[in-house]
Amino acid sequence: MGSIAFHHVFKRYKGESRPAVNDFHLSIEEGEFLVLVGPSGCGKSTTLRMLAGLEEISSGELYIDGKYVNYVSPKDRDIAMVFQNYALYPNLTVFENIALGLKLRKTAKYEIELRVNRVAKILEISHLLERKPSQLSGGQKQRVALGRAIAREPQVFLMDEPLSNLDAKLRAQTRAEIIKLQSDLKRTMVYVTHDQVEAMTMGTRIVVMKDGIIQQVAPPRQLYSEPANLFVAGFIGSPQMNFIDGTMLREEGRLYFSNKRMKLLLPDTFNAHFGDRLRSGQNVVLGVRPENAFLKAELSGDGNGEEDRDFVPATVQMMEATGADSYVYALIGETRIIARTDPEIIYRPGDKLLVGFNMNKVHFFDENTGISLAAGGDEG
Ligand code: ADP
After folding, report:
1. Among 5, 99, 106, 290, which is most buried by a count of CB atoms within 10 Å?
2. 199/205 Cα distance (integer angstroms)
């Protein structure tokens, strides 16, 4: 129970020329934790609302448990939705708020008591049942909203940015609670967020959207190590992947990435796996994550030796310390590069240094389409 299938679903709002959701085609398995992620306005909420039955589908078909549900009303879909703004009734107590959905479904009184108390225990809000929403903190309100959804015991949970009103600490804590809840209840969860960190930590599968169009569907690790295009590569990971424009070169059977400032030899594995996709003379974008960029204060030899061959001169713009990690922002010509670095070493704006890349871990994208041509793979 709780499987979902979108068949080429489109949503075009009245008076809009562009569809808000464009050919959404995806199957979600029973019990799966699926996260929809993407920048604001990319169509996540619209997709979720169509699934809930709150928004009409313009074309395409939606199935829940194999049943065609395009015209089934929200209350008949066995779905519970949790919103960003909690949507609690201010005049009802916490108990009554959680019980409301059950009451409307004419659940027996003893059954309501049983379920509300059980849910309150799971969410650790038993001591708050007699309070009104105005007497609760943001985190507590969100738990009541979750409780209301859980008490109904639906086949599918839908969550639309449920944590965005919480402060960072509570957000992390509630995030962990939702993950645990989902794995305990084993119900299908479709979760919307614009926060890639939230997506990466919560979802067993992630759908990245942009302009109403699915960019990639993959488990978190794969999204990180094999982004399908430049957009996904730039969106997933923080700080962002570095991008450098250049051209592929083939010389004496070896493959190089080159531009005005660098000529980097690619490991033979690229040639073996992606040789036919990386054509000599082709303009590409090289992608490399900050953890795969290295800094060196000075040349090891005279600059012509093996050990210095793949290092490129750069100028420090700034250093950013985020606690355990530090990042140096540097310029190679006009291209900004971010490199993870040892927090013990202090770099100052204007410092000259050398940047090298772990060439086993670089990505190449087509300059025009942005589509991934080759990926050495990053560890998640
Ligand atoms: P997200 O949840 O990713 O922020 P939405 O699904 O809310 O994106 O919106 C997708 C697109 O549809 C946006 O361009 C938004 O402006 C538009 N949109 C959303 N709701 C409506 C509406 N009721 N009428 C017209 N356009 C809408």
Report:
1. 99
2. 9
CATH class in words for 4-229: alpha beta
pTM above 0.85, yes or no: yes
Residue-wise pLDDT for 201-256, tens only, equals 999 999 999 999 999 999 999 999 999 999 999 999 999 999 999 999 999 989 99
Atom 10 (ligand 1): residue with closest C-alpha?
43
> From the CA of 5, how far away is ligand 1's center (Å)?
22
Whether 40 is in the pocket of ligand 1, judged by its Cβ within 6 Å, is: yes
- For atom 1 of ligand 1, the residue with the nearest CA is 41
- Give the domain ranges of the chain: 4-229, 242-366
| Residue nearest atom 21 of ligand 1, based on CA coordinates | 13
Q: What is the 3-state secondary structure (H, E, C) of 78-104?
A: CEEEECCCCCCCCCCCHHHHHHHHHHH
CB 256 within 8 A of CB 263: yes
Residue minimizing CA distance to atom 14 of ligand 1? 41
pLDDT digit string, tens, across residues 124-156: 899 999 999 999 988 889 889 989 988 888 999
Distance CA 49, CA 38 (A): 16
